[in-house]
Amino acid sequence: MNDSILAKVRPHAPAIAVLLVCMIVTIMASLFEQHHAEERAAMHASADATQFQRSLQQGIDAYLARNHSLAAHFSALDEAPGEAGVASFDAYMRSADGLRHNPGMSYLGYIRPTARTAPVTEAVPDPAFTYPYLYIFPHDARARSVASLDHATFPERWRALQQARDSGRSVVTPSHLPLAKVSRSPVVVLVTPIYDPKHPSSTVAERRLALRGYVFSIYYIGEMIDQVMGKEFHALFDLEVYDGEVRAENILYDGDRQAHALERDTGMPLAHRAGVDIGGRVWQLLFYAKPVYVQRYNSWIGAAILVFGFVMSAALAAGMLRWTRRSQARWNQRSAQLEFDTVFENHPAAVYSLDVERHILNTNAQALSEFKARKLDVIGRPFERFIVQDKQQAARARFEETLRGNAVSFNSAVADGDGVQVEISVIMIPVKAGRAVASVLAIVQNITAQKQREWRMQESRKMLQMVIDNIPQRVFWKDTNFAFLGCNKAVATDAGLAHPDEIIGRTDFELAWSENAHQYRQDDIETLRTGIAKVNYEEPQDRDDGSSSWLRTSKIPLTDMEGNTIALLGLYEDISERKKMENKLRELAHYDTLTGLTNRAFFLSLLERAVSNRRRRHAPLALMYFDIDHFKEINDSYGHDCGDTLLRAFARRVSDTVRDQDIFARLGGDEFALILDDVADVAVAASIGAKLVAAVRRPFRLGDRSVVVSTSIGIAFFEAGMGPDDLIRRADQAMYSAKRAGRDRYEVASSASAGQLIG
Q1: Percent helix, strand, coil in the chain (nearest 5)?
Q2: CB 610 within 8 A of CB 714
Q3: Where is the PAC domain positioned along the sequence (predicted)?
């Protein structure tokens, strides 16, 4: 059965094949005609929309020309127009039929800046001038209702007035409601500046001085577009106009009040999109074609092809169509290949073509020259063979990423024809045939010099940081906001930080020495303000852990090539040990090392000062001179160590007995002196002497033994004409008088003779 059917059909196979081919070709031709009709409709709609766009641009240019013409008229006047010219202006505009020739224009007029006569009591944009209109046409009731309004108080118009004044060009405002509030339809105002020709107006400053006023024209956006486009326009298109970007808040005009541009499914084809310039603003026009275009190009041709296609040379048409397509494809392929080969060979970088197996298919002359290779040695070899061994695996991984359809970039290194390692930057781009990657294009650049510069810069920075970290001084640098930009290790350690990088961005108030931060900030401010380095000054540093030190600091302002201060460099060193040594030397110079009392040299200077004060103030002054009785015997009997111990104990006991303001000193050996300042009379001095004698009588504990000693004291009062030496000599004589009298007592030298008062 089946064999018999095949036997019957086989002779007709060519006819069946031709019939099937004709049916397919006929359907394709019908569909092509339908598509072509749609394209013709779209082209027609685009051409019409372009013409309407040009009409709108021409209308806008006419508005600008009208403003410029009137501005030129006012500028040519000998002086700025005044109120007397209102009637003349109105007559001029009526004779010129100003609005009829400018469809869409509602008003045309002149704004004159008027100096304020009354003081300003509230915030206004321009305290010196108001901006009412002087002339307006037509001068109807609506215009008269806003005659006294200051245009500068309306933000959209004030910005346009300022921009026009400073730029010297016409400027249009954003859309806004009319001032008279008689309509909810938005308007725009076109403003053209007028300058006094007697004054220059090349710069912004000159234009501000030369300003006479402004020509302005007002347009209701909807009326302007409708009148410029004409009646036929609405039957053909729905127009949407946006001020700048296509956003809901920027819409100026929408023919059918349905914003197709803001919807995902517009339902209408976009026939044309363009921008028109109006006074420094760009209005985006979106033309959506109405069904009239599709209806216009619907025809009977598609049906005719279906009806007569099998009869009319379907085979010839099908063959011709296939031949045309094949010819065009071959031509496009040859052109594309020629363009690719030209770009490939003349590219300034080294370029390689690789197959999916990583083999090099081709390379340009720059690649051979850059890497000192011969084409014979490169073609057909795996590309990773030329990459240094430790980077081959990474290069293969990046190649595999490219085979997945992704462009990649990476750095690597190759050995050139001389065996020298070259640092390279590689970009791999997949070349697709359909969805599959057919080959890979590699663009390679030699970055060896760049890498060497980066390495030298890095080494230089490391060396500089090493130097800074190893110098004995602490070094830091701050920006002009007093935040740290960096420091060496010593500063980081002082700040309680583990690494110098941790200080970046911090201030003194956030570091271990925050207690001193206010003073440090004042020093920084003074240095940056004056631009003068503050060098080698001493300051304390108290840290949060309770430790403190003395620093010798220098702060230096750093400037750029133009002399602007850009940073602050600080250096300091810890001089705490030196300070301690200075204090120690000061103590050695002024105090006795055994007892801690004032030594002879310091005592003599203090006595001279006390005598000088006594001469100026006439205040009483007394001096006690005393020693330890039989001290030599104690030294001889118990040794010098025991004698030193007794001297220290003696000094402590006397210090505990005398007043705080009295100056007690050891002059040498067992000799001591006491300056009594502001002693009222002899009785007070005698009382102190008696207390000292009594205090010394108490036994002294020297190790495991108890020693009893006494003291002999001489007391002398300062008198007119005496010097320090005279006072010491008189007290010394009184002390020896006490010793001759039996020791363990005091003697007061009399003022009239050598006799003494014995206590």
Answers
A1: 45, 25, 25
A2: no
A3: 535-587
What pLDDT, on a 0 to 100 scale, did the predictor assign at position 759?
A: 41
| Residues near 569 by beta carbon (within 8 Å), at least 6 away in sequence | 475, 476, 477, 555, 556, 557, 558
Gap between the Cα atoms of 222 and 208, Å rounded: 34
Q: What is the dihedral of CA 517, 522, 524, 528, to 10 degrees?
A: 160
* HSE (side-chain half, CA atoms, 13 Å) at 246: 14
pTM of the complete model beyond 0.90:
no
Q: What angle do CA 649, 655, 661 make, to 5 degrees?
A: 165
Judged by average pLDDT, the poorest of 57-71, 184-198, 693-707 is 57-71
User: What's the one-letter identity of residue 485?
Assistant: L
SS (H, E, C) 462-491: HHHHHHHHHCCCEEEEEECCCCEEEECHHH
Structure tokens at 28: 């394709």
Contact 622, 715 (CB under 8 A): yes
Angle of helix 314-346 relative to helix 13-76, nearest 10 degrees?
60
Q: What is the mean pLDDT of residues 643-662?
A: 90
CA 553, distance to chain mean position in Å, is 30
The CA angle 168-142-158, to the nearest 5 degrees, is: 30
- The Cα–Cα gap between 29 and 311 comes to 14
What is the enclosing helix (H) or strand (E) of 164? helix 155-167
Number of Cβ within a 10 Å radius of residue 580? 11
